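Q: Could you write out the predicted structure for this multi-component system? I'm mainly interested in how the pieces pack against one another.
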Amino acid sequence: MSYDPIYNCIFTGLIALILGSLLFSYLHSFGRIDLYHSMPITVKRLFGIRYLIGACSFFTACVIAVLISNDDINKVILTFLFFLTAYHVTIYAYTITGNPVVAICVSIIIFFYIDLWERIYELMCSYETVSSFFAEPMPEISVMDIYINESGEPFWLLLVKLMIWALITFLFCRNSYIKRPAEACTNLIAFYSSNLLLKLMIVVPVSLLMGKSAYDSFSGHKNTVQMVWMILTAIVTSVIIETLLSRKFKTAIKKWGSIIFALIIIFAFYAGFKYSATKYNEYVPSADRIESYAVYNPLDSYYYYNNIDFNEDGSVNDYISAPEYVKAHMFLADTEAIVKLAAKSVKTDYHDMASPLPLQVYYRLDDGRTKSRLIWVDMDAEQNRAYLNRIVGPAYYKSGIWQAFTSNIPKNANVSAVRYLDFSSDRYSDIGSDMDKANIIVKQWRSAMVLYDYDHVRYDVAVGEIEVVFDDGAYRWIMPVYDDMLSKIKGLRYN
Amino acid sequence: MINVYNITKHYDDICALKKVNTSFEEGILNVIYGTSGSGKTTLVRIIGGIVRPDDGVIIVDDMPIYDNIITKKNMFLITEKTSFSGYMSIRSIARRMATVYSSYDRRELNDLCGQYGLKTGRYIAFLSKDERKLVSLIIGVAAHTKYLVCDDIFKDMQDDYIKKSVEIIEHAVKECNITPVVATSDRSLFENLAGSIYEL
């Protein structure tokens, strides 16, 4: 069992579906139910026997994988738990339905249902102030996301989450099996209460999604349009589903109580999402709660990606990602300035700003928590530019994003070249190839850069770049050079 | 003794059974007579402890039947739709039944199969519809349970198989000390044998 998460996901899910179908499809056959349920075996025992046949079959495969193929036991455990969850969902689908085709469809829908709600959450909670640079990974909730584990959560957390899912789905499937009426073979859905649950499971997300779609499509009275669309969708979808389940249109019309109940749930979710989004977007920490903060400006983007993570002995480990670099090196302390800018940002829609500039902010609070937000700064307002200079002016270079360049190159780093690229001629000129030469250049560059304020650096175009090359070209420091700095850095050859 | 108290069962808006009260005595052939759609199958399945009634209770030897292993050990149920796996032989089904019913008599099975020309090694898939029903009855009798509850398996059966089935039921009553409760829509079927008839 080689461990490719997505491949394993599909394969394990299919096995679970097949085993669950083979062992519990008898619930859809009158003859088989009559045979098995008339025998002197309790329903619980009957469930237990069939359940264990499926579970033990896959467990045996897992044991073989560990013993013979030497697969990583952690991954096999997670695969087994994933199998159990999918297996339970399949059994549950067979117990709540009376038709194998419907059961397979229902099991697939139930399995991916959480993913659907994750998507609804993303769409409904339009967090306009989400910072894409300092984005915190969302905790994985759905079974597939937990198993695939793209966010790299630790094993123990994945284990706990999958065990919880396996336990919840087990309780559902066992409970519904025990309560399942034998005569349910003739029905598409075995329990009437499942009718209502199934209806809500479809009507609520469909209405929320249609409402959101209407919100995005209309330019005016967006909230009103959204609510109207949600109501209409709920009514139409409820009627369609009830007609399909009961096969009578009149019955669908009569059951207006369930439509009202669905509307209550829809609006409860709607209100919850709106509240959550509003609270998120309006968040501004108080100045005395901020221990320090970091900022990222998209104009700096090119240079951030050359941040090198040096080991203690001076050797280069790798490039460190820009967000991680900023978080590790930037500890800005002028809290008044950032809080003023953030407070102004939440009051004004950036569409109404004359000259909006996005600024991604990472707050470190005094209680150890961190929060990130995107704020918009109207550069047309003079006071805003003054605040911005306090944040990303000269101090920014000393203690912020350029901090790696404000300290000397580590002693044992393997500097292979120092050179200058003149943009006008598009040519490199060598400055030197040793540590000392590199440190002289960096020091001079640092002195020249500290004079630049925010406006000057960001709106001027660099005329060239100094490159310090490490490990024979594998890694580079790149430092922009502006017109005014040319005379202050010795050794640069330019046209 | 099987006592049926106030059994009521609805399927959606249809009332299948309404306040059915009767009892089935031991040692005689009990017949439930009713036309098609009168609720025979529903009553048989309720007596067999498969279906839970909306109201009322079935008491078998002073114990309720539903999900009760003790009472079910004394009862073998055959419905119209009872189906054994096609890939199993008569012999292997009997072996499986023997693990569930402690009173199972394999010799009885062999004798009855031999008597009616059925080889115990034959797979169910290769039997005709009537032969399968006959096999169900033989397996039920061989279980030697106190009660044999049988739905209207005689419907659409060929005359010679009906005759064989009646002989087997007669044998069950007289030789095996089994109390059959048989549902049928043909009043004449057990005319001379029935100890009691309950009409739905």
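A: Regarding packing and overall arrangement: The beta strands of chain B are 2-11, 14-24, 30-33, 55-60, 63-64, 75-78, 147-150, 179-184, 196-199.
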